[in-house]
Amino acid sequence: MDKNLVLQEEHFYDLLSFLISSAYLMSQGEEFEELYPSLRLIDAANRLTKYALESGGLEDESWPRSFIDESEKGLDLMGIDNEAFKGFLIDSTRMLAREMKRREEV
């Protein structure tokens, strides 16, 4: 069963402003740590996933809920343990790859 995923206007502008301000901040270069762009992208992915869950348009919510839990833990690592944050980025990529493969097989 396909569900429709609808993005609310307030979520559209929230995520759009976040992405545009991130682009600006990342253009400032050396002022920010090397992992800052990754932090902003994971934060955007977390927000997008929350909006998708709020919409009620996802057929299976198990992976998105797991991603939110893991990404919030990962976001807390930034600035505390950069190596653990890098490990989180690798794990997140693997986690999504496994989910994408599972979705192809269904």
Give keywords:
106 residues; mainly alpha; 4 helices; 0% strand
Q: What's the topology here?
A:
Layout: H1 9-27, H2 36-55, H3 62-77, H4 82-105
Please tell me the overall pLDDT: 88
By DSSP, the count of extended strands is 0
Topology as a string of helices (H) and strands (E) = HHHH
The proportion of residues forming helix, as a percent range, comes to: over 70%
Q: How many helix segments?
A: 4
Q: What summary fits the major beta sheet? A: none
Low-confidence stretches: none
Walk me through the structure:
The chain has 106 residues and is mainly alpha-helical. It has one domain. It is 75% helix and 0% strand. The chain is built from four helices and no strands. The chain has helices at residues 9-27, 36-55, 62-77, 82-105. Helix 2 packs antiparallel against helix 3 (62-77). The termini are close together.
Summarize the structure.
The chain is mainly alpha-helical and 106 residues long. Helices cover 75% and strands 0% of the residues.
